[in-house]
Sequence to fold (366 residues):
Amino acid sequence: MSLSFDLVPGTHRTSPEKLVEILRDPGFVKYFSDHQAVATWTADAGWQDSKIENYGNFDIMPGTAVLHYSQEVFEGLKAYRHDDGSLWFFRPEMNARRMIQSCRRLDLPSLPEEDFLTSVYALMTVDKDWVPNGDGEKSYYMRPFIFANEQFLGVRSAARATYAVIGGPAAPYLSDGMTPVDIWVTTTYSRAGDGGTGAAKCGGNYASALAAQREGAEHGCSQVLFTDAASHEWVEELGGMNFFAVTADSALITPPTAGTILEGVTRDAILTLAPSLGLTPDVRPISLSELFAGIVEGDIVEAFACGTAAVVSAIGKLLHQTDGEVEVMPLTSPVGEVTRAIRTALLDIQWGRAADPYGWMHKITD
Ligand SMILES: *Cc1c(COP(=O)(O)O)cnc(C)c1O
Fold:
């Protein structure tokens, strides 16, 4: 039976005056909107107790499994306010399906696609006033997640789990996307290995990427590019974004996901859009030696990272440490034409400024 996510009576709301102030400068979800969607799963009864309630504390005891063993998965998607005031999701069914895959890998109960969609539409309808207008590419970022919510210190899959959706207004995650970011290429840390959890969107992957991120930050880099765990020769992806390189002859190279790279919705959209922009998508393994030589010789002219939060983020330089020395590889065209064209094409669809031939946009409210 499918779940309904109805608003519980008597919730309170932020005053319109305060909301105007928040929406003016929201940061990246510095403020959470008034409500959350929640549901509980038990091994005996399945999913139940689904509702929309005020954003607020969970009742979690210190012995709760997720705090010890990280049995948790999450999603990230955005709602966009078009010029006519209507609200839209971008491919929310992709997030629903990916969350099911992530749950399988973490042995969590998965939430059916239909229930996921009901919950995100319900929350967004209740908190619609929290969606900023699109000025400065502001949107509403939504975070569905499922975690093991059972007090138990033995290692086994939880017999009780909580699903929740929270969110809030968000300016772009990394600057405006066209101010190039510098990337630290790590060949010491790994985020994923064969048979591991790299293709699942789970909190543990992010935790294991933080030390590398700190190392990058010490070298002035805001993000890390990971390589394959076995040989550290093949480019994989960033901690939370997929990677693309652009060649001088207009090919768009990104590695195949192959179980160790997360299947980004943005990555998929870019590969789909590429031909209409005169670009040739080229999904194939790319080695660090090819990437570095290509940058030096001018065969690779641009590179960018992509994901829902940051959309498309131009890469200025790659930094890589070999034998204690840091090599700096600047892209010829850091704020390149191709990166800009892809970014614009994607944003134009998301904000309803261009036709949506792929049926990616789904209306939430008028
Ligand atoms: C979420 C995520 C991405 C980007 O996926 P989108 O669906 O485009 O937001 C890429 N890599 C990792 C590791 C991620 O967690």
Remarks:
- The chain has a mean pLDDT of 95.
- The longest strand covers residues 311-322.
- The radius of gyration is 21 Å.
